Amino acid sequence: MNDARLPSDVHDPAPGKETSATGIWRHRLALFRDSDLWQSFIASRLVMAAAILTALLIGAAFLAPVIAPHDPYDLKSLELIDADKPPAWEEGGEARFLLGTDDQGRDILSTIMYGTRASLTIGLCSVLLAVAIGLSLGLWAGYAGGRIDAAIMRVADVQLTFPAILTALLIDGVALAIFKRYTLEGGKFWILVMAIGLSYWVQYARTVRGVTLVERDKEYVQAARLIGIRPVKIMFQHILPNVMGPVLVLATINLALAIITEATLSFLGVGLSPTEPSLGTMIQVGNKYLFSGSWWMVAFPGLTLALLAVAVNLLGDWLRDALNPKLR
Amino acid sequence: MAAADAAPNRQDTMLAFAIRRLFEALMVMLAVALIAFALFRYVGDPVNQMVGQDATLEDRAELRRHLGLDDPVIVQFGRFITHAVRFDFGISYQLKQPVTGMIAERFPATFELALAAALFAVALGIPMGVYTGIYRDNWLSKVFLTVSLIGISLPTFLIGILLIYLFAVKLGWFSSFGRGEVITVGFWRTGLLTASGLKALVLPAITLGLFQMTLITRLVRAEMLEVLRTDYIKFARARGLSDRAINFGHALRNTLVPVITIIGLQLGLIIAFAIITESVFQWPGMGLMFIQAVQNADIPVMAAYLLLVAFLFVLINLIVDLIYVRIDPRIRIYGKGSQR
């Protein structure tokens, strides 16, 4: 892509320095605009809506300390008299709490922003962990072959027979039991990341292994091996770029799954503690007040979670279709 | 056996395949047992959990010897396994009851819930799949597919909460809490024979079965679309068979092999998701027991649940594997004599 040329460059033998620099950029932009990825992106309004929604949610989550009207972590600002207020447009609602307050007087809108940040961070970290494990094991299995391959893939097969959510729950439960005595600050965050990451690595390993098996016997890999490049370098520098497309697709779909898994575990009371807002813990707390009619405590975080999961899922589906040449 | 050696037939390869799968299943169970044992032995001191604060050192040492905690680890592991095989999982730290009794008490609840969910999924999923497969562009098909999209993308616990809010809080049609009235038949406590028990079952069963229903709908639809394109269906039409005979007698029948497999494998998923559903509806089954055990670090209950669920999964996978080979002769069993 670096030496891509504008068609006009060919006709004009002596382009100025300045024009060629902007020209290359303009050309790259044009290339991007003509690419199948972009074309399929603007062709579907649904995908565009999903992308805008995802961007909005991510923006609101990570800018929460700046734009949120209240700080749910600031215990001093909480007043019990503000507790259990309905949304602003309902009777008894107040304009300062647009979406109402929870049982401790925290503003729902602000808590959702902070909660989405926690959910997204856990989701991203656990997907990164799953990718790291899956990529490494997949490359190793595919490149080494033989017994190592058989052993790794056997473990993957066995893990695949158990649903990922169950594996995550079991790892989470065991880790909580082990670390009960050392409840460090933020310890539950890492337990969640570990539990979810360790439950979703199998798909990456299988995909990466498949591609590696094919690439391993190609000439460029043999050449690299002949001139004495170390296997680790061959795997990560030469074979790895060939698997990044499918891995990216998997990772996007996986992000939605990871967010849902985190919410589920937190809802079940084995994830984050209720004092650290995430979408799951908010729904867990709100669920207790459903029968007293305080629907807003569970409705808004629930809606946010559903929108986030559906939007990210749609993006993942689109990426899969757009990057798969067979479906064109 | 000499004759069989000379000409290995399908029965023999089938047997070899079954034995190998059985061996693998045993290895998996052994690995899970090792994890459960390690959990039991090294996480949290069993002695501390059993005696009170004021127990003397001699009491503790006596209890250690009595429990056999001074024996070599391998002996303890062996004892753990022999106990587990006899369904003896020790005493719950939290409730001070034998774990086996707790499981026996809660198993019927989970079983009835899972059965109702599976029935709901199959009874609705297959007709919806057939309908959307035959009438692709019909508006009703689009409604079905949209519903199934929601079922796939919404998390189970949110669906449960939504149903509770609509049908229990707002409309008051169904109960949202517990099993209702139960009747004891022998050792089995069933909620299927009372009106309140059946009413309590509706919402949890829908919550648990919705995902499976959408999955079956989409699978049957995809298979129907594929089968309806084949030559033998075209030929059947040319012969003037009625639509009904073609759609159900030929098309649906040929979609059933993958559908049965998926339903079999989904049984495991239903058990996994029962944990969530039971938690939402406070359904007194094994899933709720497990979640409470995790929250309280009740290791014997956790270990028992781990072993039971692993056993169930291994069993389901084994059976599905074997049935699959049995009903679809095109599937090759690799190994000796598979060229045949």
What key attributes describe this structure?
heterodimer, A: 328 residues, MetI-like fold, 0% strand, disordered N terminus, B: 340 residues, mainly alpha, two-stranded antiparallel ribbon, 74% helix, flat
Description:
The complex is a heterodimer of chains A (328) and B (340). With 328 residues, chain A is mainly alpha-helical. Chain A has a single domain (98-327), classed as MetI-like fold (Orthogonal Bundle), CATH 1.10.3720.10. Helix content of chain A is 70%, strand content 0%. Chain B has helices spanning 2-6, 10-42, 46-50, 57-67, 73-85, 99-134, 139-153, 156-170, 195-228, 231-238, 243-281, 286-295, 299-327, and strands at residues 183-185, 188-190. A two-stranded antiparallel ribbon of chain B has the order 1-2. Chain B is mainly alpha-helical. Chain B starts with a helix and ends in a 13-residue tail after the last helix. In chain B, α7 (139-153) packs across α9. Residues 1-7 and 334-340 of chain B have low confidence and may be disordered. Classes of the chains: A mainly alpha (328), B mainly alpha (340). The interface between A and B is large, with 36 and 39 residues.
Write the layout of secondary structure elements.
The complex is a heterodimer of chains A (328) and B (340).
Chain A: H1 7-11, H2 17-34, H3 36-43, H4 45-62, H5 64-67, H6 108-144, H7 146-161, H8 164-178, H9 187-199, H10 202-216, H11 219-226, H12 231-239, H13 244-267, H14 279-288, H15 296-323
Helix pairs in contact in A: 3-15, 4-6, 4-15, 6-7, 6-9, 6-10, 6-13, 6-14, 6-15, 7-10, 8-9, 11-12, 13-14, 13-15, 14-15
Chain B: H1 2-6, H2 10-42, H3 46-50, H4 57-67, H5 73-85, H6 99-134, H7 139-153, H8 156-170, E1 183-185, E2 188-190, H9 195-228, H10 231-238, H11 243-281, H12 286-295, H13 299-327
Antiparallel strand pairs in B: 1-2
